[in-house]
Every structure is written in C-alpha cells, then in structure tokens.
Amino acid sequence: MQAYRTISEKGTAAYEIQKSKFYAYTAPAATEEQAREFVAAIKKKHFDARHNCSAWVLGADSSQQKSNDDGEPGGTAGNPILEAIKQHGLTNIVVVVTRYFGGIKLGAGGLIRAYSHIATLGLEATPQVEIKPVCLMAAELDYTMLGTVENWIRSEGLRAAPAEYLDKVTVKLLIEPQDVEKIRTNLINLTAARCHITVAEPEYMAVPAEA
C-alpha cells in the first residue's frame, strides 16, 4: 500500500479568452467506470457545447491515464488537462473541460495554454486530501495510566480514534505502518509494560493534504 493525493469532492472553475468560454469540472473517481459516467454527465449538461474534453488518472500508482480531445486538434486539449493533473500529483480524479467557441480561433498553442490554465484553475479550486495507509493500534490499560498516556499522545501529535471505556480503558491510535514498532515500544515503556496492545492490518484513510 502506498500513499497518494486525490480530491475529496467535486469542483468547478470558469475562464474566458478571445470570446471562447471554458468551464472546468473535477470529480473523484476510483474506477474507469466512474470516470466515464462523470464525463457523460458533463456532456449531457453541456450538450450544446462544441467540445467537452477530458482526462483522468486512476490507481494509487497513477498507472491508468487517459485523455480525450473531443474534436479539438490532436494534443491541444486532453493532454494539457492530463498534464495539469499530473503536475498537481493527483490520482483517482477525472477532469472535464467544456468549451463554447467564441468565433475567434486560438491556434494550437493558444488552445494548449487555455486548456492547461482552466484545468489548473479547476484543480486549485477543489479540496485535496492525502490517502495514506494507517494501522489502528489499540492499547488496553488501567484508568490510572490514562492521563499520562493522553498527555503523551498530545505531545507526540498522534492521531487518536475515540477511546473505549469498560473495566479498563482502550486507547486507540491511527499510526502509519512504518511508525508502528516505534509507537508500540514507546507505549510499553511509558506504561512499564502494563498495557495490552493490538495492531490491525493497514487500511487507507483520508487526511487533509499539506500545501
């Protein structure tokens, strides 16, 4: 499992140059089917537009990539959109750019710049998240040690899930796989080995993306 960056919701942006109007639409997409459905939905929304160009990148390793010029000269629309996605380091995302032709030709270079710019505007207007593999670490301990452990969690800046309060308290931490052994050792030392620790297999979790 590897970490990757994606978007957390849909986004939009608009741009006008030489009377041509461009509209960018972004959406999360985990599969090619989801990406195709989003493209189809935008084409239906803008059925009267001359072009609805698109690109998507899928997979934690960004291995699935596709672009479509939708009638624009080859390489002037879909590929600039795709490059904008890649430059932002995003995956599991689809971007559609709708163009209403304003009667003035932009030329190949102008089209590339316009589609790249509007795609970038759309991406920058969309909230991003980091998807990271995280292990749930549960530490069962006596209530007498809870204050000490909670202070340690805050001082270390660790992410915690809601604790479970029964005969003993079970503190739950969300730990990246490479940090599991270090955190386990620290907990054992902190409690003088008076805690029972279990660690679940890693699962993907979304966290706010760093700028």
From TrEMBL:
One of its GO terms (cellular component) is cytoplasm. Pfam families: DUF1949, Impact_N. The lineage of its organism: Bacteria, Bacillati, Bacillota, Negativicutes, Selenomonadales. It comes from the Bacteria. NCBIfam families: IMPACT_YIGZ. One of its GO terms (biological process) is regulation of translational initiation. It comes from Anaerovibrio slackiae. Residues 18-120 form the Impact N-terminal domain. InterPro entries: EFG_III/V (IPR035647), Impact (IPR023582), Impact_N (IPR001498), Impact_N_sf (IPR036956), Impact_YigZ-like (IPR015796), Ribosomal_Su5_D2-typ_SF (IPR020568), UPF0029_Impact_C (IPR015269), UPF0029_Impact_CS (IPR020569). Belongs to the IMPACT family. Residues 140-194 form the UPF0029 domain. This is YigZ family protein.
